[in-house]
Write a structure and sequence with these properties.
Protein name: Transcriptional regulator
Radius of gyration: 29 Å
Order of helices and strands: HHHEEHHHHEEEEEHEHEEHEH
CATH topology of the largest domain: SH3 type barrels
Distance between the termini: 71 Å
InterPro entries: CBASS_pafABC_assoc_protein (IPR051534), HTH_11 (IPR013196), PafC-like (IPR028349), WCX_dom (IPR057727), WH-like_DNA-bd_sf (IPR036388), WH_DNA-bd_sf (IPR036390), WYL_dom (IPR026881)
Number of strands: 11
Strand content: 15-25%
Structural class: alpha+beta
Domain Helix-turn-helix type: 7-51
Domain WYL: 144-209
Domain WCX: 239-314
CATH architecture of the largest domain: Roll
Helix content: 25-40%
Low-confidence stretches: none
Length: 320
């Protein structure tokens, strides 16, 4: 089905760009058979796309003012088209006088659309308010460049501060997704240095530069990658938590916007049994701590000990 949808869109583009195109040429350009093209044209008619056959040998064209805009070019396609005049220079005397003006109109429409997209990206970046890390004084972010890179699928080069190693390093990153978590923004993408998928916190980026190098996300699936992840930290564990929430907070827990799908069962006394499987524990335990004594870890038993030890440390800290 996706292949046919792509072919239908290509047929529309081909008819728009070359009114009078024949069925056999559509078949050649779409790398299929004449019979398949006829079936596709019938499907387009059923969708009220105004395509008309002007008779034997005259091909297909749109009737009325139907068209598909704007030009949805990739950067590679735009670059290839921009080189067209130089490629045709040897045969320029044979080209119709209208070519130059037609070429200028097409490129003008392309640049106008690019400018419109840049404005939209800038507007989006402007309305997203990011906090400033306490150790940063410049207050600058590279959100615009990052969003632009994600949309256009271009690699970024940045100096990244790694908190774990307490050092900065230059990295080339293919940014796949922009992820908001706990009042922070993260990028999930392919790190060329590590040759693997990594998670990066935007506030630790320095001097982001958009490169000409395009990338392909290939078969990367975000949901699969983030499976059983409480917030942003991923681990290799498989921890099944069972927690009982007091009736006073049960309704608030049910309203939490979570990134996992826990099993929640209301008990007869109004308390809430909360069960979830996670691959990392730290973020979940931090979230649980906000409910204090209204949240009791039932399983695993080892995490009851973890919580008990933490409470003992707090008790010692505040003892007179």
């Amino acid at each position: 089905m996706p292949e046919r949808l792509i072919r239908l869109m290509r047929i529309i583009n081909l008819i728009q760009s070359k009114p009078g195109i024949l069925a056999r040429e559509l078949a050649e350009r779409c790398e299929t058979t004449d019979r398949t093209i006829y079936r596709d044209l019938d499907a387009l008619h059923a969708m009220n796309i105004p395509i008309s056959n002007f008779g034997h040998g005259k091909g297909y064209a749109f009737i009325s003012n139907f068209s598909m805009f704007p030009l949805d070019w990739t950067e590679q396609e735009a670059l290839a088209f921009s080189l067209l005049p130089s490629a045709l220079e040897p045969i320029k005397p044979l080209i119709s006088e209208g070519f130059d003006s037609a070429y200028e109109k097409v490129m003008g429409a392309h640049h106008k659309e690019k400018s419109k997209r840049r404005d939209i990206v800038q507007d989006v970046a402007d309305v997203i308010q990011l906090g400033t890390p306490a150790n940063r004084k410049d207050g600058q972010t590279s959100l615009y460049d990052i969003i632009q890179a994600i949309i256009s699928q271009h690699t970024i080069r940045t100096v990244y501060y790694s908190q774990g190693r307490n050092e900065q390093s230059q990295r080339d990153i293919d940014p796949y997704y922009l992820i908001p978590r706990d009042n922070r923004f993260y990028i999930i993408g392919f790190c060329h240095n590590a040759q693997d998928i990594r998670t990066f916190r935007i506030s630790r980026f320095r001097d982001v530069q958009l490169l000409d190098q395009a990338f392909d996300k290939s078969d990367f699936n975000l949901k699969t990658y983030m499976k059983d992840t409480w917030s942003i930290e991923r681990g290799q564990q498989n921890i099944r938590f069972k927690v009982r929430f007091h009736p006073d907070v049960a309704r608030y827990v049910k309203e939490e916007e979570l990134f996992t799908k826990p099993k929640m069962t209301t008990q007869k006394d109004g308390s809430l049994l909360f069960e979830v499987t996670l691959n990392h524990d730290r973020e979940f335990l931090n979230w649980l701590s906000q409910y204090g004594p209204d949240a009791e870890i039932l399983e695993p038993p080892s995490y009851r000990e973890v919580m008990r030890a933490k409470l003992e440390r707090w008790k010692l800290l505040y003892q007179d």
